From TrEMBL:
Residues 44-57 have a biased composition (Basic and acidic residues). It comes from Dunaliella tertiolecta. This is Dynein axonemal assembly factor 11-like CS domain-containing protein. Residues 1-28, 44-83, 206-227 are annotated as: Disordered. Pfam families: CS_DNAAF11_C. Residues 1-13, 215-227 have a biased composition (Acidic residues). Residues 53-170 form the Dynein axonemal assembly factor 11-like CS domain.
Length: 227
């Protein structure tokens, strides 16, 4: 019984040469049934299965942030474990802006949450490198363009439009901001908002905690996902 030597089917680069041809009538690729075709079909099936597995894994990761939220929303901020990668999240799909104040000495976050959400349903957790807001059980979690002073920050609510404004003094008033995390209002220029007090309803913020590492291991900044 003669045994086929599959090694003869490979070229000098270790690749199987394409055995197919284009059918002029149908415009489809056709391959004759031979050992080389069997190997090509096997390789293509493996690649297709691998791509399907990768898509399934990617889809599972994309939905993990939603599946981790309890039904009915959070009652308190979820724990961020030490060394855990910080993921930006906007579960309520709120429109928001993140800008420097007019004098460049603070950061101002404005979130358009509407006027019908009671202020008692809003919590703020301000840390040196990030801010978290819990709005009616849904999490808005953002990295900051520079470090801020949580103890000097204030969170206020508009009595007319219901807009939430969080003002955060920079730890170093002269610090440069990472523009990757700046999000101006549409049609506005960064730095157009005052840092001083305004006639808005005050809400409480949580006491500061430890800073979470939010950058990768190399020296290049990255913009985390906004789920």
């Amino acid at each position: 019984m003669q045994v086929e030597d599959d090694s003869l089917l490979y070229d000098e680069n270790g690749e199987i040469k394409e055995t197919g041809y284009l059918d002029e009538e149908t415009g489809e690729m056709k391959r004759p049934w031979c050992p080389a075709t069997r190997i090509l079909d096997h390789i293509e099936n493996e690649r297709a299965n691998k791509a399907a597995d990768e898509r399934k894994t990617s889809s599972s990761h994309a939905s993990s942030s939603d599946s981790s939220r309890p039904k009915g929303g959070y009652t308190d901020f979820p724990e961020i474990k030490e060394g855990e990668r910080f993921m930006q999240r906007n579960e309520g799909q709120w429109d928001f802006s993140m800008e420097e104040g007019a004098d460049g000495r603070c950061l101002v976050l404005e979130v358009d949450i509407g006027k019908y959400i009671d202020t008692s349903l809003i919590k703020a957790d301000i840390q040196p490198g990030y801010i978290r807001l819990l709005i009616k059980g849904r999490l808005l979690q953002l990295l900051l363009p520079c470090e801020v002073r949580p103890d000097g920050s204030s969170a206020q609510r508009s009595t007319i439009a219901g807009t939430l404004q969080v003002t955060m003094p920079k730890e170093d008033p002269q610090a440069e901001v990472n523009i990757a995390f700046i999000r101006p209002k549409p049609g506005s220029k960064t730095g157009g908002m005052a840092c001083g007090p305004s006639k808005l309803k005050q809400i409480n913020k949580l006491p500061p905690k430890a800073t979470v590492q939010a950058m990768d291991d190399d020296d290049e900044d990255f913009v985390p996902d906004l789920a």
